[in-house]
Structure formats: structure tokens, C-alpha cells
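Researcher: Batch entry, complex prediction.
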Amino acid sequence: MVYFGTKLSDAKEYGSIQKMYKPNDDSGILDDAYTPSGSANLAEPAITVTHADGNKSLDLHYISHAVAKIDDNVSMLTVTLKDPAYPFEVKLYYKTFFKEDVTEQWSVITHNEKGVVTLNKFASANLNFKADGFWLKQYHGNWATEMRPEESKLTHGIKTIDSKLGTRANLYEPSTFIISMDKPATEDEGKVLLGSLEWSGNFRVDFELSPEPSNYLRLIAGINNAAAEYHLKAGEEFATPALVYTYSDHGTGDASRKLHSWARKYKIVDGEGTRLTLLNNWESTYFDFNEPKLAQLFKDTKKLGVDMFLLDDGWFGNNHPRNGDNAGLGDWQENKLKLPNGISSLVKEAQANGVKFGIWIEPEMVNPASDLYKAHPDWVIKESGRPEKYFRNQLVLDLTNPKVQDFVFGVVDNLFTKNPQLAYLKWDCNAVIYNAYSPYLKKDQSHLYTDYVRGLYKVLDRVRAKYPKVPLMLCSGGGGRVDYGALKYFTEYWPSDNTDPLERVFIQWEYSYFFPAIASSNHVTDWGKQPIKFKIDVAMMGKMGFDIVVGKLNEQELAYCHEALKNYDALKDIIWHGDQYRLQSPWGNDVASLMYVDAAKSKAVVFNYLVNNRYNAGTKAPIRFKGLDPQKKYSVKEINLYPGTGSVLEGKLVYKGDFLMNVGINPEVNSYHTSVVLQLDAVN
Ligand code: GLA
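Model: C-alpha cells for the complex:
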């Protein structure tokens, strides 16, 4: 049993916790830390196996545990379990981050049987909870509708969230979840667990509420075992991905901040570093560009005042030019008609304009209309006996095959070797796996979903070994792959192709429960009818970028961009590395508000967005700030003022932290001021 909750003052008393709980459980193993199947356990198991002799019964007994201190903040608890009847072992790993209060949990399975053991199910973690009721917040969506939340009270039986898509696995639902205990948690109150599987493929998270009167919640999370049994040879290790989770008894705000600090320090590449602002050309040109157009875009990048130009899809393919999404994927050579002088001349030209250059790739994929498909049909995941079924006109390469891994690594490596000044990659993944068949795996087809992701991580390991710091954006036709398994290799993610800022307030809000602002790529685009001020103010709550035609901005709009970029430069350190407080939700309110505060509590920024266009919608009451020092005095000023407009706040505002947190400030958001950004500075 694992105890979550307030730290006890006498450590010896932890030993007495278990005997206080009396689950109504005849099997005696319902609250085990990793429930096997085929023996006494008749509830949903964490692990199911078929032994080498065909027997399906597994029993796991505690053998030993060890705690290793990795450093002052991180320690690793390992618990060894063994089957008394078979040479079969599971090690449970709990990597704990004390300051951040975060745990990563996974398991490693091995055996020494005479022959191959089949793993039919192999969860990462199996947690048990006891409370007066459980509420699950989960997410669903699709392209452009990512991260739609739903919260419901868990009833008896099993509730499952899962994916079987193979790649782009989070397209319909991600593995991220929130469980409230006793009552639905709020931002500042309630017992709450935030979790997410660190895996970019099929996942399954079961929430099993055992029957009255025990009412235990059993959470079992891991790789989805659907069509995925794994054959394990004697002596071979099967390591599951980690489930990362954090618990708070002070609501979701505290839990999110813990996850953010952990992610920045321990998971996301360069999470405590800096990021590049950029101009992307996807929506301004789509596939239709050439060198003169790009030369103009480099100038526009400079004129706008951002750090980098990002060239999106459409730059490659010759026999099958990438002029639409139906050809060219796999042929990663510059298109000679569009780019006769190649990428290296683009990098130079961008630099001559004083900006960096980044580029889009989607190296895991292939269009049937490509040289690659013709040269290597055996590199493609498909059922040879069935008609091909495409997703966005493309198929997925078989990353279980080491030759394909070399190829995909080569796509990245060639770009950087030929263009050492290349500053950034956007790595996309736009298809799911239909007709899952790997020519490479032959008889082990059920390994495909697991080994695909392992193959992807092998490639990304090689990329990071050679290019440890280069910024990489994780994109998957929008947010189809936002998870901490992948984010270990990336500096940022693309939340959604939906960049309508009103939609983005909601989408970014929901991602913010699990992922820190520094990793959220928020672009200002033509989506949405709102003015540029609203768009930029929304993009600012993360890593800002643009995908607009700069030439279409009028003088005032361009001046606003410059003003906002100047403010962003001054505040980005707080947004990226500070503590985030969600003040007022966009759901059910006219106005969404959230703020970021620096570690010293001396500087903060508050974003307020109108999310309801009905008559008289706006802030009728003050918004109470959070995370400030009650004793410090702060000046409050509106920033990001559109040229020619004054602040909605009258006079010079200086208030103590306790006033700002108990009474608050009315940011006067309404249909005339649809977004209001406030800067707080501690004053003496
Ligand atoms: C995906 C991405 C977009 C863009 C296109 C290019 O849909 O999400 O941002 O890069 O691919 O084809």
C-alpha cells in the first residue's frame, strides 16, 4: 500500500497505516501493488502471462525492496516480486522527486523459464485509493477539437480510457487524467491526483471501483494490451513506460504547479532554458512557395521582430513533388523547382536578414506516391493481402525495422550535417496505423505497437545524443502526440491546428493542467475573427509564434505586434519559468483569467480573455490574484495597449498582496476590451 497525503510527523507510524484499512476482500490481494491474474485475484489485473508451459496462473510475492538515493532530491524505490511456482520476476520502480512531489512509476518483467513467456498484459502502475467517492476528469476530441474535458463520478465497475491508434495515439483521447477524491477538487481545494502515461503509442488506463462495501479505486495504467501480447525470452527484460503522477490535497492548481516544475527540471528538453519566437509559413502559403516568396518571408520575419523563420510542409520531393498532401512524403530532397539553391541557401539568406531558420519534417511517414515507397515497399506498415487504407493519403513506416530507424535518423542527421546553422525542426506525425502489419516482425506481429514506439524512441535517442539542445517541436496533426514519453526529446509541442484564439483559450487552459507554458507553441494566425490584440494576448500564455501574412498588417497592427513582443521579451521568463495560477475558468464564465508569478513573488503577469460574446458579458466582479506575497506592495498596470487606446484601469494602482489576493482587481473585460493583460511589480 502506498500512502498519499499529509506527511506524518512520526515516520514509524507509516507502518501502521495498512492495518487500519479493511477491504472487504476474500482474495486478500485486492490492494496489492501489482495484481497478477490466474491465481487468487479475480479483479482487473496489472499483469497477465502465459508461462512457457502454457499455464496462465501467476502469483507475485514480495521478496525485497531497496531505496537508492540518486541525488538530494531524487530517490528510487525498487520492490522485487517473485512467483513462488515459476522463475518469474517483476520489479516495481518508483522514482520520486521530493521537492516537486512527483512520482514516476514503472515495472520491469523478467523470467528464467524454459522457453518463451507471453505477456498478455503488462501495466506500468497499479495504484489503490480509498476515499468517499471518486471523480474522474478525462479528455476527448479530434483534429482541431483537442482536450475537451469531461468530469464524472466513477461508478462501480471499470471505466477505461485508451487508444488503439498506434501512432498519433492521442487523436481521440490522451492518457492524461485527474482523479478527485471525496468531492470534485477545485483549483485550491480538494484531494487530487494528476497522471499521464509517458508513452507515445497505444495506452490503456483502467479505473476500477470495487463493489460495496469496500469501494476501493484501483487504477491500472500502461501500454494497451489490445492485440499486443509480447513474447519474452528467458533472461530478456521487458520495461514498461512510466506513469507519472502527483498528488495534492490543495486542489488542481497546486498539483499542476508540481508537475510543471518537474517537467521543466527533469523531462522536457531545456525546460529551464529559453525558446525562439518565430514566423511560420504554413497558413500563409501552404504548399505554394518558392525562393523569392521565402526571401520576402525572411524580411517579414525581421520586420515582425521574431527570432526565426520556420519553413513548413512542401519543400521536398521531385519525382513526386510535395505540392499537396498526396505525394512526396519519404523523399526528403529539396524540390528543385521550388528551391533550386537548396536549404543551405535558405539558411544563409535567413541569416543575412538577421533571423534563424527552421524546417518541418514528417520522417515516420510515406506517401504511396514517392520514390521511397517504390524502393522499399517492405519498409511500410500494411497488410499485403488487403487494399491499402490511408490516413491523410499516407502510410506509416515500419520503425520496428532498424534499417527504417537508420533512414529516419538519417533524415534529421542529413539536414543538420548539411546545414549546421539550421536552428529548429518541427517533427510532425499525421497518420494513425491502419492494417497493422510489420514486414520486419514476421511471426511477432503483436509486438508491432510496442516496438514501433520503442523504435521511435531509439531514433530520438540518437538524435538527442548527437544534437542535445537543438529546439524540436512535437506536432501530430495538432495535439495527437502530446505526452511525456515524447516530450523527453522535445522542447515544445503543438497543442492543436485550431489556432482560433477563442478556441485556444480553452485548449491551452486544459493542457495547462499537465504541461508547462514553456512547452506550449501558441501561434497567432488568421483563424478566428478576433483582433490581433486578442490573438497575441492569447498566444502569450506560452511560447509565442506567428503564422500570418505580415504584409497584410496595417501600421497600427504592426506597431501592436512590436509593443507586445517587447513586453513578451520582458515577461517571458515569468511565463516560461514562473508559477502558474488558473484564476477563473473559461468554462461557465464570461472571462478566463490566469497568471504567472516569478519565484521571488516580485513580478507577475495576469491574462484576462473574454470568452462569451453575449450581451453584457464581462467581468462584473474583481478577479482575485494568487501566489503573491501578502505583505508586499505591487503596482498593477495594463500592458499590451493597442496603439491609440488608453488603459481600462484608472489611475496609478498600488495595492498590497493581501488586497490583490482577497479583494482583487476588476480588469474591466467586456466587448470593448476583450483581452486585458496586467503586469504586477513589487514596489517598496
Ligand atoms: C499538420 C500540422 C500543421 C502543418 C501540416 C503540414 O497538420 O499540424 O501545423 O504542419 O501538418 O502538412
